[in-house]
């Protein structure tokens, strides 16, 4: 925050440079020292020579600091000037400094009490050093002036509270009422003077609340958490009123709770009313929607929908238009709730009739439900293995931080492999063919295949797996096209990468095929799903540069800029795979399939590749587990019965 700004809680207010008034009957080294100190501090300074001119100048400028010379009583009485200034309504937030003479060595230290009683804020023992005066002014600015400035700013907050439509009640940490706004007075029927200074326990309570509700509320707010729910209060007249209440603890000095702010609103039926559309209006809405639908699909050519298509209805048009407006107005008045909102409302209602322990547990549930990362797990402990915890923690967050403007650009490896690739599976060398016979086993050693194929395992393993799943028949392509496509994909993996190379792609392809062969998986998928999964596994890291998304974003790479720092590599893998595939007819495995089928297959492949982004991994796993646990449990119960 700059010197011309001040923060009051979350509010930032701009202030003018501090103004200082020097009241000195005659110019001397002391007045000069304060003048130059103000200049050094960037304060605006005025000088007054008489009490009258001092008051007049103050009423015009409203100075934050006033320095009154109290060394020479023959010119004027400093206490009298101070009282004159304090008598004005603008001086409440002004700091007044008395300059007093130095005491003699054998003189007793004079009391500061007379100065304080006269209205002075502090005293300054005469010292003509500019640095000493500067230090004094700076201390006043950082102390009293800033505090007074915050107090002045609070007036705007209280003005807002005074005109707020919601009832607001502020209590101390001991639940003593310190403030209520006019809306609270109107709601409860009390006058402010009847409430301030009283403990909440002194006010009549409604008998409609459950017995332990107050204990539940106190337990929650004393932990520094806000409480929100339905509460019945008793008005001064004795009537009960149902309120929607939110109580917020306010942390103050020492990090302790110093106040509680309660925001209350009458819980009328209108707040929870769900407007229903009657039969006539529903017909109007359906008629309007069907009409719009027919107009939208009658002619897809540009400008094909014009006034003639609506005007052809003749005299029915005005009534239709009126009914349409009526229906739209009713639709806008309907309450629309998300499912999570309904769940939170149900839990809130259940809290009212629950014991304290259950209510506290439900509070924790509500905290979890209100987060935006319901499926993103959190590390329970970081003590067992800090290195593993740091690694997993990094995978669970995207960690995007701007470190520098240096750009990291990698080039695509478009060179084709020089390794002799078999025309068909029958041409595979016997040693490699023997290895591939074990590809259906989980223990299949991909590193042995890497060595045997001279770091080109993807083409060989891909031919074997794609053939066993009937991919060529499904895509209506030849085995030569498939082989050319596999060779092209493998050529665009960087063999220089120690991990994200074609061996890694082959390893993932093997694992994907292994799981696709499981009965529980096969029963849930059709052949399009299987083909999409195998292709996605093959291309999911194509052209990987050996750097993470965070690195590319921090370095400001071209890919990060292209994909807006979002799933950068995953988007690149999917896009490049399709670019390479359709670029050459010899390797285009999609050239013979139906257009609609291609669109479905393409979307499935893209979704799977984008899902490999590690920041989304745990979310996908959690959703997957949640989606199969209940169905599997139902199947087991059925089989047992």
TrEMBL record:
| Residues of the PAS domain | 160-224
Q: Which PROSITE patterns match?
A: PAS, PDEASE_I_1, PDEASE_I_2
Cofactor, how bound (note): Binds 2 divalent metal cations per subunit. Site 1 may preferentially bind zinc ions, while site 2 has a preference for magnesium and/or manganese ions.
Q: Does the keyword Chloroplast apply?
A: no
The family database entries (InterPro entries) matched by this protein are listed as: HD/PDEase_dom, PAS, PAS-like_dom_sf, PDE8-like_REC_N, PDEase, PDEase_catalytic_dom, PDEase_catalytic_dom_sf, PDEase_CS
Q: Which residues form the PDEase domain?
A: 424-641
Annotated metabolic or biological route of this protein: Purine metabolism; 3',5'-cyclic AMP degradation; AMP from 3',5'-cyclic AMP: step 1/1
**SMART domains in UniProt:** PAS
Q: What is its EC number?
A: 3.1.4.-
Annotated keywords: cAMP, Hydrolase, Metal-binding
- Cofactors: a divalent metal cation
Could you tell me which residues belong to the region Disordered?
286-323
- Sorted alphabetically, which CDD domains does this protein's record hold? HDc (cd00077), PAS (cd00130)
Extract the NCBIfam families matched here: sensory_box (TIGR00229)
- Family per record: Belongs to the cyclic nucleotide phosphodiesterase family. PDE8 subfamily.
Q: Which PANTHER family match?
A: CYCLIC NUCLEOTIDE PHOSPHODIESTERASE
Write the protein's name.
Phosphodiesterase
Which species is this record about? Goodea atripinnis
């Amino acid at each position: 925050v700059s010197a011309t700004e001040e923060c009051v809680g979350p509010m930032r207010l701009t202030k003018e440079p501090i103004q200082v008034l020097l009241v000195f009957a005659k110019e001397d080294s002391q007045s000069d020292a304060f003048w130059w100190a103000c200049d050094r501090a960037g304060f605006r300074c005025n000088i007054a020579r008489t009490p009258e001119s001092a008051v007049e100048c103050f009423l015009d400028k409203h100075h934050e600091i006033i320095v009154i010379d109290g060394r020479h009583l023959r010119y004027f009485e400093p206490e009298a000037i101070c009282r004159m200034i304090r008598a004005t309504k603008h001086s409440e937030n002004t700091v007044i400094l008395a300059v007093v003479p130095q005491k003699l060595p054998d003189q007793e230290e004079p009391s500061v009490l007379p100065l304080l009683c006269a209205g002075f804020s502090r005293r300054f023992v005469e010292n003509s050093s500019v640095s000493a005066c500067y230090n004094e002014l700076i201390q006043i600015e950082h102390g009293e002036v800033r505090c007074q400035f915050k107090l002045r700013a609070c007036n705007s907050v209280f003005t807002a509270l005074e005109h707020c439509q919601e009832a607001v009640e502020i209590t101390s940490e001991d639940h003593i009422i310190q403030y209520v706004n006019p809306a609270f007075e109107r709601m409860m029927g009390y006058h402010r003077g009847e409430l301030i200074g009283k403990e909440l326990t002194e006010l009549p309570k409604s008998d409609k609340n459950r017995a332990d509700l107050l204990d539940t509320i106190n337990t929650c707010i004393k932990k520094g958490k806000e409480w929100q729910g339905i509460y019945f209060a008793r008005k001064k007249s004795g009537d009960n009123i149902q309120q929607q209440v939110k109580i917020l603890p306010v942390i103050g000095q020492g990090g302790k709770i110093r106040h509680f702010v309660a925001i209350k609103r009458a819980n009328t039926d209108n707040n929870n009313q769900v407007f229903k559309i009657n039969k006539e209006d529903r017909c109007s809405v359906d008629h309007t929607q069907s009409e719009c639908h027919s107009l939208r699909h009658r002619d897809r050519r540009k400008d094909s929908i014009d006034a003639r298509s609506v005007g052809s209805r003749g005299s029915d048009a005005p009534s239709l238009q009126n009914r349409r407006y009526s229906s739209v107005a009713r639709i806008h008045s309907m309450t629309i709730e998300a499912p999570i909102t309904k769940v939170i409302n149900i839990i809130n209602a259940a809290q009212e009739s629950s014991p304290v322990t259950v209510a506290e547990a439900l509070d924790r549930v509500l905290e979890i439900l209100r987060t935006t990362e319901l499926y993103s797990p959190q590390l329970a402990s970081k003590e067992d293995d800090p290195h593993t915890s740091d690694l997993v923690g990094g995978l669970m967050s995207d960690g995007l931080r701007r470190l520098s403007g240096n750009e990291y650009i990698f080039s695509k490896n478009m060179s084709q492999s020089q390794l002799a690739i078999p025309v068909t599976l029958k041409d595979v060398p016997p040693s490699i063919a023997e290895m591939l016979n074990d590809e259906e086993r989980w223990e299949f050693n991909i590193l042995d295949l890497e060595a045997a194929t001279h770091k080109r395992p993807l083409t060989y393993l891909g031919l074997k797996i794609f053939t066993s799943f009937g991919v060529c028949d499904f895509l209506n392509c030849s085995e030569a096209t498939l082989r050319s496509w596999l060779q092209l994909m493998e050529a665009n993996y960087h063999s220089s990468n120690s991990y994200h190379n074609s061996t890694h792609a082959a390893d993932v392809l093997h694992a994907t095929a292994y799981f696709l062969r499981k009965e529980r998986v096969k029963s849930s998928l059709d052949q399009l799903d299987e083909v999409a999964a195998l292709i996605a596994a093959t291309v999911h890291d194509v052209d990987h540069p050996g750097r993470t998304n965070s690195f590319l974003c921090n370095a400001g790479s071209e890919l990060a800029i292209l994909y807006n720092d979002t799933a950068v590599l995953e988007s690149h893998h999917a896009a490049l795979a399709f670019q390479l595939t359709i670029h050459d007819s010899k390797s285009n495995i999609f050239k013979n399939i139906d257009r609609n089928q291609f669109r479905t297959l393409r979307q499935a492949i893209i979704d799977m590749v984008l899902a490999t982004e590690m920041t989304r991994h745990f979310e996908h796993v959690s959703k997957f587990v949640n989606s199969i646990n209940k169905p599997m449990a139902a199947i087991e119960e059925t089989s047992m019965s």
